[in-house]
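Example 3.2
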Amino acid sequence: MSFDIFNPQVSTVAKGLEGKVITLVGSNSLGKTKQATRMNKPFYLGFEKGIRAIAGIPFLPINKWSDFKKINKQLTDPKTLDKAKEIYQTIIFDEVYTSALYCQDYLCKKHGVETIGEGKDGFGLWKEYETEYWSEIDKLLGTGYTLVFISHVEETKEGKHIPKGDKRSIKPIIDNSDVVAYLQSNGVDEEGKVIKSSAWFAETDKWFARSRFDYIDTYLEEFTAENLEKVLADAIEKQEKAEGVKAVSFAEQKESYTSEELSYEELMEEIKDIGIKLNEADRLEELQDIVEKHLGVGKKVTECKKSQVQVMSIILDDLKELLTATE
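Structure, written as tokens:
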């Protein structure tokens, strides 16, 4: 696709759980992992050992950050993505705080320091940690899996319950979540059996929760995998009726967010063709001015590397404009 503000894409809402990002927040023994594993075709990323009492769930052991990187590559690599998605639909990331500690340990060992704050000659490895953590999470986003992030809870000075973790790990996950559900215990019944937890999808002065869906019921009395899927489906259906829109498939929604494909070979060929035409029109000096504006004095497009396709595409647009003005 090419960009044209006079022929824009129109935003859509996708039905179903495909491509949705869900974060479950709460203390232990609320059913976060149990219910997540009951969702469609699960694969468990266990930074914690939350499935020791749950049988039949596909997983690979994660005891260090490099374990996760290797698994994540197979889950997200374009060469293996379709095959992986035939087997798995729900990727369960359990849990955020522990995964962040693994990432920090990975970088400490890489740089030979004890703590994340000691690297880079005392300036700390914070930026590298932020980049490393986000780059792996970003690979999962947009793949079409249903992503379920599980987060423990911590209490602020004001007594509010929020997802546990530093801003470099928990914030990008929260910011990209379609739903952040805060789970609340309901204790036990008269026979001493655990009553299923409830879920909240709106923030209060007592806890953090949120949803991108304006029409979602903010309270789910019984938190189960089926009820979670239903409350999201109902929210989208209500939006369709209230706003007169039609929900689309995840594939259709993803297509509308796809940027133009930039081929190094095609860009180079087109730039050369336009260059020949501009030379014939005696506009070679203006052509060079455009190239040097973007690449630097004395630089040539033919010297560009494949990593420079973005700037090549901008140069091509400017050259096209110059050629149009010449004709």
